[in-house]
Design a protein that fits this description.
Distance between the termini: 40 Å
Helix content: 40-55%
Number of domains: 2
Number of helices: 6
Strand order of the largest sheet: 1-2
Length: 103
């Protein structure tokens, strides 16, 4: 589904095309939460009043709902197989939020 219109405040923000369209579409359909990891895109989405979470937030939610038994192995696997990077302090904070340690 593509957005009907992309506001200039979004199109002129120097985001990747996918992030631009995701924010524009979210502004149209007003989902509960927008999934976005890139810092600039997250910031712009929040400036437009959207609630945003990233993949780490989804992993924590899965743990809280007992869909997975631990977050650290999944994050490690994501980093090894994916093209992503998270700061150590953030990973410590995420793991601590569910009673785990990032080592």
């Amino acid at each position: 589904m593509a957005p009907q219109r992309i506001p200039s405040s979004v199109s002129e923000a120097d985001l990747d095309p996918g992030e631009t369209e995701a924010i524009a579409l979210a502004l149209e359909i007003q989902p509960d939460t927008l999934l976005m990891d890139e810092r600039l895109g997250r910031r712009l989405a929040m400036q437009h009043g959207l609630r945003v979470t990233g993949c780490l937030g989804l992993i924590v939610l899965a743990r809280q709902r007992k869909l997975i038994s631990a977050v650290a192995p999944i994050i490690r696997d994501l980093q090894e197989k994916g093209d992503c990077w998270f700061g150590v302090e953030l990973l410590k904070e995420v793991c601590a939020s569910v009673g785990e340690q990032w080592v």
